[in-house]
């Protein structure tokens, strides 16, 4: 079953595309999406198609900040009916926890975690996609940043933002958007802010309206059941870098017992071991290809405490060492392979 996202994910795509001299309608058609979806924000569409649309648009326009430019225009109201519930939470921390509880109504590929680390809070955000989706992750983190900014206004002062991907050729727009330190080639995707900021009272919160919003959401048709394998994969994405991606921790994070988790996975013909290996394979391809990450850092980002354990696992999955895989996947190696390929003659069929 394909993972879905509200068509509101396309909000401001047309405006940004047109500013860059790009035809949004044609781009949507190539992605297999109807242009009318722009005006149907609550329609559910395939999340993977949306991610490919944004990557293609960034590549064809040469604008590496395409996703972030969309985020810069987003409003709290773009969350649809959930926006009323978010708006009336007592603190930003409660806003984020409420958002996490309702992500299945917004984007089935999106995962968010709030982790307290001393007097700081790490807001991890990942998109569970089979391929790297730089524009989608920058859009998601940009929207999260805007959410905090909209609620706290001048009090919103994150200490840093982190992306696992490399920096753009020109980071000027990123620097204007994020009024804090930006780390590219980081160990995770997300924001770091002060714990005290998350607990500042939201003066606009109205508990009566919050309760009303809960009833509105509860009355929504719930035709799609949450996919246990998708929920587990999202939890693994978030927990791997911290070494907490165990069956027990994931079950606890999902609010169920480990036995219940195993039983539900058994019912789908899955195992926790197989799912964590699949996620590691997806992330390993991205992280090993990024030469700014040392292989020791990659091992840690995939939840391994030793380089040797990571190397053994990688060899079993990919048939070679991570060093060899990195060399083969480098741009220079790819160019050499293309140069060695024989060209077809004029009479080739």
Structure description:
It is a single chain. The protein has 349 residues and is of the alpha+beta class. The protein has 2 domains: 4-217, H-NOX domain, CATH 3.90.1520; 228-332, Homeodomain-like (Arc Repressor Mutant, subunit A). The chain contains 19 helices and 7 strands. It has helices at residues 13-19, 24-30, 47-61, 66-71, 81-87, 92-101, 103-106, 134-152, 172-177, 195-198, 207-218, 228-239, 247-253, 258-267, 272-289, 295-301, 307-318, 322-329, 331-340, and strands at residues 4-6, 44-46, 110-117, 120-127, 160-162, 181-183, 190-194. Strands 3-4-7-5-6 form a 5-stranded mixed sheet, with helices on both faces. Strands 1-2 form a two-stranded antiparallel sheet. The chain is globular. Residues 341-349 have low confidence and may be disordered.
């Amino acid at each position: 079953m394909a993972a879905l996202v509200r068509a509101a994910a396309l909000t401001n795509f047309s405006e940004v595309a047109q500013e860059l001299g790009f035809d949004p309608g044609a781009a949507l058609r190539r992605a297999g999406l109807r242009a009318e979806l722009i005006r149907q924000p609550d329609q559910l569409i395939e999340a993977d198609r949306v991610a490919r649309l944004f990557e293609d648009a960034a590549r064809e326009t040469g604008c590496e900040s395409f996703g972030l430019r969309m985020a810069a225009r987003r409003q709290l109201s773009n969350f649809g009916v959930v926006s009323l519930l978010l708006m009336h939470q007592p603190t930003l921390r409660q806003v984020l926890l409420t958002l996490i509880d309702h992500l299945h109504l917004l984007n089935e590929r999106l995962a968010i975690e709030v982790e307290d680390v001393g007097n700081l809070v790490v807001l991890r955000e990942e998109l569970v996609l089979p391929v790297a989706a730089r524009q989608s992750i920058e859009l998601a983190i940009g929207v999260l940043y805007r959410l905090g900014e909209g609620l706290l206004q001048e009090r919103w002062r994150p200490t840093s933002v982190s992306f696992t991907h490399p920096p753009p050729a020109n980071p000027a727009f990123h620097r204007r958007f994020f009024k804090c330190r930006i780390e590219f080639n980081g160990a995770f995707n997300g924001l770091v802010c002060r714990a005290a900021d998350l607990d500042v009272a939201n003066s606009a919160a109205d508990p009566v309206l919050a309760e009303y919003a809960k009833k509105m959401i509860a009355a929504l048709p719930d035709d799609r059941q949450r996919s246990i394998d998708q929920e587990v994969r999202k939890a693994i994405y978030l927990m791997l870098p911290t070494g907490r991606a165990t069956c027990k921790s994931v079950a606890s994070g999902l609010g169920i017992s480990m036995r219940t988790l195993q039983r539900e996975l058994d019912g789908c013909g899955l195992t926790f071991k197989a799912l964590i290996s699949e996620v590691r394979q997806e992330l390993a391809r991205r992280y090993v290809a990024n030469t700014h990450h040392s292989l020791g850092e990659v091992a840690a980002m995939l939840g391994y405490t030793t380089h040797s354990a990571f190397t053994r696992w990688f060899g079993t999955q990919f048939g070679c060492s991570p060093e060899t895989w990195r060399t083969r996947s480098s741009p220079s190696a790819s160019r050499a392979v293309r140069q060695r390929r024989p060209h077809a003659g004029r009479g080739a069929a």
